[in-house]
Specification:
five-stranded mixed beta sheet, 21% helix, alpha+beta, single chain
């Protein structure tokens, strides 16, 4: 863990010396843990195995031992750490990618792992840095966070967890040199991609041997901390508090001081949260009474030192924080627990003559969970058309026959009909496009004209190739009745002093059109146009 530097990510060597961070800020909270409102979770989070977390830490220790004693940026030890984590995730079914960057003349890497599914416009990220300093294996800082996040990710796969949010896990490079990897990642995102990340949890040093239990304070309303996070951070904080409250374990809020990889996220307005157990700051007597451990001793006496190995851990802190990570993921991401099904129609379109019927098959399929009863209905039916289903209720996985019947008086036209299946838990829809070859609906107008169009592109101007004059403002109404199987369009045009301009139109994909236009006095005409097909038509219209 290192504090956030103001220098941006660069792709050339820098000559400046990077400072080491100072004391961890703990805020001004009293020793008693805050009581947050209970946050409901849709599925119980799994218990994360401490033994499995420690297996990953043993792998990190072995990697350091085999590569010069460390896992620092730009070293073979760091590359091997990335390879280890990526291999575990690939085998579990994650979609992984390695993002490279250059800093201090050395290549660094971020490892990004996406769990397939969930809403791509609502992403929950969980991350921590994978690199250590050059003086040791970096087992607590930050092998502990990296290993805990990895095991939570693997539990996501073992449980085939299907959350509402899209889950993305990240292991950052070069954090110890100033949050370089995480800054590079955030800077590489478009504004739209940044907006898709609804929250970021960061876990850095979660197994300190003399642990504190610090939760990043996303809200100033409780008087804790002076660095609230962006909107949504208070909720992320509350979820973690709820977990520790549920196990009756006290915590303390702490500022977003910019020390770790949440920094680049909150700088662009992404809500953040997380836990850590402390670094070089010394535990006070009050904190020792709150959490146990030794007052006056550093949370991690081996911070950034060669002794930060497997012996430099507190199993209780590591276990509690790993379980807290899982609880946060399962709570914030939610879970698609409802049984679900789909509806489809075959064929997806059809034609019916006035006085006749057309049929289609409505198929349902169970897409999640168990089968459920589905009630079928149709909406958007055109005038003179009725719909029936046989049977009207099916069990998802079964099919029904949809019958569409057009009355003798049904007008011509093409219409989208929505077929809806309503289940006991969810619903789904499908669209059937219905064309009715019906009777003329253009009777009863003050004026009637007829004509014939010879094919695509042919046009007539009505009335009788000329125009008409309306001395007052009012509503123009018109109806075009074309032959079955053609696509005729109707345009109302007005003289503007220089030429004819369209003021209203009917341009559906069928033979019949209608217009209702409120206009001022002037000269008008109708243009009847053949988009496709040929034949005779009837135009009825009223003038103001």
């Amino acid at each position: 863990m290192l504090r956030r530097l103001t220098a941006p990510v660069v792709t050339l060597a820098l000559a400046a010396t990077l400072p080491i961070s100072g004391l961890v800020t703990t805020g001004s909270a009293s020793a008693a843990p805050r009581q947050a409102p209970t946050t409901a979770t849709t599925a119980a989070a799994p218990d994360i195995s401490l033994d499995k977390v420690k297996e990953h830490l043993s792998a990190f220790q072995d990697i350091a031992d085999q590569h010069g004693g460390n896992r620092a940026h730009g070293t073979p030890g760091y590359q091997a750490s990335v390879d280890y984590v990526q291999a575990e995730l690939d085998a579990a079914g994650f979609e992984t990618r390695v993002q490279s960057f250059t800093y201090y003349g050395k290549t660094g890497y971020n490892l990004i792992a996406d769990w397939p599914g969930g809403d791509p416009d609502d992403v929950l990220m969980v991350g921590g840095h994978l690199d250590g300093v050059s003086s040791g294996a970096g087992i607590n800082d930050n092998g502990s966070g990296s290993a805990a996040i990895l095991e939570v990710a693997l539990e996501v796969a073992r449980n085939d967890y299907q959350p509402d949010k899209h889950l993305r896990f990240a292991w950052w490079g070069a954090e110890e040199l100033g949050l370089i990897g995480s800054s590079h990642y955030v800077d590489s995102l478009s504004a739209a991609d940044q907006a898709r990340i609804s929250g970021y949890y960061n876990f850095d040093m979660v197994g300190s041997p003399n642990p504190g239990y610090f939760i990043y304070d996303g809200d100033d309303s409780d008087g804790v901390g002076a660095g609230p996070g962006p909107d949504g951070s208070a909720y992320l904080e509350t979820v973690l508090e709820d977990y520790f409250t549920s196990i009756d374990w006290p915590t303390r809020g702490t500022d977003f001081s910019g020390r770790s990889d949440y920094g680049p996220f909150i700088e662009v307005g992404i809500a953040a949260g997380g836990t850590f157990t402390g670094a070089e700051g010394r535990k006070t007597q009050a904190e020792a009474q709150l959490w146990g451990g030794t007052a006056g001793r550093a949370y991690d006496p081996c911070y950034h030192s060669s002794c930060d190995g497997l012996a430099n851990l507190d199993d209780g802190a590591l276990n509690r924080n790993a379980d807290a990570i899982a609880y946060a993921v399962w709570t914030v991401a939610g879970e698609q627990t409802a049984d679900d099904f789909s509806v489809s129609v075959s064929p997806t379109s059809g034609t019916v003559d006035a006085g006749a019927s057309a049929t289609a098959t409505v198929a349902t399929q169970t897409t999640r969970g168990t089968a459920q009863q589905v009630q079928l209905a149709a909406s958007g039916l055109p005038e003179g058309v009725t719909a029936t289903f046989s049977p009207a209720t099916v069990t998802s996985g079964e099919s029904a026959t949809l019958t569409l019947t057009a009355a003798e008086s049904a007008p011509s036209g093409t219409h989208p009909v929505t077929v809806t299946g309503t289940g006991t838990q969810t619903s789904d829809t499908a669209t059937y496009t219905l064309t009715v070859n019906g009777t003329s609906s253009c009777g009863g107008h003050d004026n009637t004209r007829t004509g014939t169009l010879s094919g695509r592109g042919d046009a007539d101007y009505q009335p009788d190739g000329s125009y008409f004059h309306t001395p007052t403002s009012g509503t123009h109404r018109a109806c075009l009745d074309g032959p079955d199987g053609v696509d005729f369009d109707l345009y109302l045009q007005k003289w503007n002093g220089f030429g004819w301009s369209n003021v209203d139109s009917g341009t559906s994909s069928g033979p019949d059109e209608s217009i209702s236009y409120s206009g001022t006095s002037g000269y008008y005409r109708y243009r009847v146009y053949a988009y496709s097909g040929s034949g005779s038509y009837t135009l009825g219209y009223d003038t103001p």
